[in-house]
């Protein structure tokens, strides 16, 4: 088994349409039942986002598909590269939700870009799915199985946030947790080219390591789409203790309970796919994006604890970090991260932090790619500098970390 290094040798990003300021959001997403939101200003003040982009027109019609956003970012990336689409032997694409339930998004992006036959990887998750795709690509390059991998992360959340989604749901389903993400998420895509050698001219980013850690067995659902009741997916539902009993026995117990309560949702409608029709699922609120605000703050604790563990393992030293590239989804979280890092004695000075959340918006798994593209193209990076990236995901609490080193620099 051969091992070699992997380098990010080019980057690109794409944000659809013009920047949309806070006062314009409802002119794009629409007024739900003709009324302005009473929660919007409070949530926007907390997240600090000033502008974002949507792939929707003023009639809430899609102006791009998720695969098209990825393809646009990939074209920008390849335009900046010394390789072209014929050189790509691996295409990896991450997203929270592609255009179709199947096939995988990488298939759609490959066709969109007309890339010749190659290996593909589609990763599905929330904010960390883009880094999952990047790690899959970097590992294959390091193993020598592939030489040139194109990695994309693309999000088109606005299709789930337009007014018709909320108007189709029954009134009881429209609570704060169903509306919260409407003022947090927006659209965009990023792309990175990973190769076995640095680019011949200009800087590259050596991928020193990537770590992805999930804590799904420790927490309930926090961000989800596809269920009207997140509590039906509580952690430990199928713990080793419950699994010791015959699963049919557990099923019978649930069936009897469902009959007693006449609650069809207990068994038949945990997932949107369990409803008689998709219209029934939409009416119940199962197709709304939901954020469990009662446990959301755990994302900061889990992320900082992971960082401290990496320090203890000797994988990173706070004093060696030149750029702390952190995908925090709301300005509120920044203060909490600063507080925990300061109290633990591992604070990275805020002048070393880099984000474009406030102007580019929270684009989920694409955010870290869009941040890296802006930083990579800035002309500010110097040979030998260290970039440390952290990407927390609230779905069921996953945190990804990545250490990059700037190499090259000769023009």
Characterization of the model:
With 411 residues, this protein is of the alpha/beta class. It has 15 helices and 14 strands. The longest helix is centred in the middle third of the chain and has 15 residues. The protein starts with 6 loop residues before the first strand and ends with a strand.
Q: Helices, strands, pairings?
A:
Elements: E1 7-14, E2 20-21, H1 25-29, H2 40-47, E3 51-52, H3 66-79, E4 90-95, H4 105-113, E5 119-124, H5 129-142, E6 148-155, H6 163-167, H7 176-179, E7 188-195, E8 203-214, E9 223-224, H8 240-244, H9 247-261, H10 265-268, H11 278-284, E10 290-291, H12 298-312, E11 323-326, H13 331-343, E12 353-354, H14 357-360, H15 367-376, E13 386-393, E14 398-408
